[in-house]
Amino acid sequence: MHVSLLDVLRIKMEEKYEDGVKWKSLEHNGPYFPPEYQPLPDDVHFYYDGKKMKLSAAAEEVALFFAQMLDHEYTTKKVFRENFFKDWRKEMSPEEKSVIKDLDKCDFSEIHAMHKARVEARKNLSKEEKQTLKEANQKIVEEFGYCLLDHHKERIGNFKIEPPGLFRGRGEHPKQGMLKKRIQPEEVIINCSKDARIPDPPPGHHWKEVRHDNTVTWLASWTENIQGAIKYIMLNANSKLKGEKDWEKYEIARKLKSCVDDIRDTYLRDLKSKEMVTRQRAVALYFIDKLALRAGNEKEEGETADTVGCCSLRVEHITLHEQLDGSKCVVEFDFLGKDSIRYYNKVPVISKVFKSLKRFMDNKEPGDELFDRLNTSLLNKHLSSLMPGLTAKVFRTYNASITLQQQLKELTNKKLLSYNRANRAVAILCNHQRAPPKTFEQSMANLQAKVSLVERKKAAVKRCEEQLLKMEVQATDREENKQIALGTSKLNYLDPRISVAWCKNMDVPIEKIYNKTQREKFAWAIDMTEADFEF
DNA sequence: CTAGGAACTTAGGACCTACTGA
DNA sequence: TCAGTAGGTCCTAAGTTCCTAG
């Protein structure tokens, strides 16, 4: 009987718990709430239209949020200011509301100066004061930062309720500047096991609900007021639960490795389909596979910044070039992706893809969807029929990891610059001998003499050279890294076992590759990986 | 099917700290 | 000794995916 990796996975998970159950027992102390608002000292004033004005606590708190951000460029943005002012007015008393009608007439400068002074003062605290502060923080971590999951003590990822403030968002976010409200215990749902001690709400308060749902991994949740999204308190990445999930993710990506050729054949064949949906799906898949684009869910207009992924690409985001820079069939991409990060790329594609794209763009406006018959759910449904567990994002994981493995193999060859040593080893093995040259003894002695003469200067030169080399490497590294964030891929896409195996093979200490946090997160991989691991 | 909700992963930026090189 | 930087941590926004109700 053939047992696939995924079957093994499923068996392993089932072994633990039946269907969807994530834990048997869960106990914790609830979330940590940010401190109450402290009103401004009496000598710090807000002015409206040049006149001193004492604000109510609620309005003052929001004014402080704005004053704190005054050095940031976005407090000058129209959308930000309008959203802020609208929300601020909601916090004002009727009297305040009747007076404060124009943000331009508001003078926050004293509040701003006070804030800057506070930041400065914090920076200038003595060593002892800083230590005291640190210990106080440590105390909070000890009390709220851990939970007991199936009787194992685990670190919680984000045990703090998000403090109130002004929403920024990324890119041209239509909701920037809106007030992100303070969360009360009455809005928080606690999740723990039935037999666990229910965490105490802050004095005088109660929880919204205490539930005992062991099919989810979160410990507490609340609904945030900007997008109406639910926020969760969950475990740290170094926890068993998260680690197993991570391992599972990479196993699915490895499974893709075994069938990616078939899948590629399939979508290349689908490019010729008479069905429009199928052709669009094939082109989208081609992009996702070749360019590691994200799936691209549709988003509600006006709720978020205008960003796209593969399925939500619009005609305006690509330009077709029959001929560009000596290549045929070039697609020029220019769009804002996740976090409003620009994706710009010129890619030669196969002619079938190129022709299909032309068709998709026929009779469309720039603002129209490129893949008008396609969405992520259709795409993922198709993918899961090709391989269980396969979704669009698996391609990113797979392509990232396989690329690392290939690159490491190539670099490895170069690194074994001791080609000559290898050659010699082979020669010894094969007994390829020769008689020592007659002049060997003398020439060696000569050399030795010269060596001791030049030694000193050489050492100096060597030091300089080493410095130079180091600087050159640094410069290259920095230049290449200018716009590249290595952390994200390391943390989310690269199967850690590739790196662990490489370290073992190359005799590189794992600390050179992973910092403490990363070692904790990837503890599962460090433990289980042999040098011969193949992704 | 479609929309919206829920749960979870992925992501960049702010801030903090330890190190380094002048 | 001190400023500047690199790297780590924290924070939470912004994605993906799955599920459910109509």
UniProtKB/TrEMBL annotation:
One of its GO terms (molecular function) is DNA binding. Residues 116-143, 454-481 form a coiled coil. GO terms for cellular component: chromosome; nucleolus. InterPro entries: DNA_brk_join_enz, DNA_topo_DNA_db_N_dom1, DNA_topo_DNA_db_N_dom2, TopoI, TopoI_C_dom, TopoI_cat_a-hlx-sub_euk, TopoI_cat_a/b-sub_euk, TopoI_cat_euk. The keyword Zinc does not apply. The keyword Cytoplasm does not apply. SMART domains: TOPEUc. Pfam families: Topo_C_assoc (PF14370), Topoisom_I (PF01028), Topoisom_I_N (PF02919). Residues 166-507 form the DNA topoisomerase I eukaryotic-type domain. Transmembrane segments: none annotated. GO terms for biological process: chromosome segregation; DNA replication; DNA topological change. The active site is at Y493. It catalyses: ATP-independent breakage of single-stranded DNA, followed by passage and rejoining. Its EC number is 5.6.2.1. Keywords: Coiled coil, DNA-binding, Isomerase, Topoisomerase. Releases the supercoiling and torsional tension of DNA introduced during the DNA replication and transcription by transiently cleaving and rejoining one strand of the DNA duplex. Introduces a single-strand break via transesterification at the specific target site 5'-[CT]CCTTp site in duplex DNA. The scissile phosphodiester is attacked by the catalytic tyrosine of the enzyme, resulting in the formation of a DNA-(3'-phosphotyrosyl)-enzyme intermediate and the expulsion of a 5'-OH DNA strand. The free DNA strand then undergoes passage around the unbroken strand thus removing DNA supercoils. Belongs to the type IB topoisomerase family. This is DNA topoisomerase I.
